[in-house]
Amino acid sequence: MLMSKQKKNQAGKGARILISVNVIGSAGPIRLVVNTEELVATVMDSILRTYAQAGRLPVLGTNTDNFYLSAGGEVLPPSDTIGSHGVWNFFLWKKPEVEKFTGVECPVTRVMTLNRKGHGLSRKLGHGSWRAWFSKSLKISSH
What we know:
The protein has about 140 residues and is α+β, with helices and mostly antiparallel strands. The chain folds into two domains: about 15-95, Ubiquitin-like (UB roll), CATH 3.10.20.90; about 100-140, no CATH class. Helix content is about 25%, strand content about 35%. The chain contains three helices and nine strands; from the N terminus they run αββαβββββββα. It has helices spanning about 1-10, 40-55, 130-140, and strands at about 15-25, 30-35, 65-70, 75, 90-95, 100, 105, 110-115, 120-125. It has a five-stranded mixed beta sheet, with helices on one face. A two-stranded antiparallel ribbon has the order 6-7. It has a two-stranded antiparallel ribbon with strand order 8-9. A hairpin with a 2-residue loop joins β6 and β7. The longest helix has 14 residues, at about 40-55. It is elongated. It holds the Pfam family DUF7054. This is DUF7054 domain-containing protein. InterPro entries: At4g22758-like (IPR040358), DUF7054 (IPR055482).
């Protein structure tokens, strides 16, 4: 009798699904059971808390405003429900960093290159875009 009441109460909450979230830069996916009616922002918060509790590296922080959750190449708006897209595999990745330079925001580009032996990937920052713009703006054009 008690089991049937619990099942009726759970049915009103929405279906529960197992999702798999690959965090870019981390070793493996995080798997969570969530309600299909939960908002994407709530799920992102749960993912970041689970990631931190597991002690995974790199340390990401807990601010959901710094991350995107995407499914199938599409970034999900934080106000959507997680079940509205019909997928169970997601990617969580950090938003690109933005540098402020004399009142103009310039995105910092991240370039992935092979290391000298060609075995692994190393990350380096490419500042060529704003430097080229800055040097071009300083040039004095002749008539």
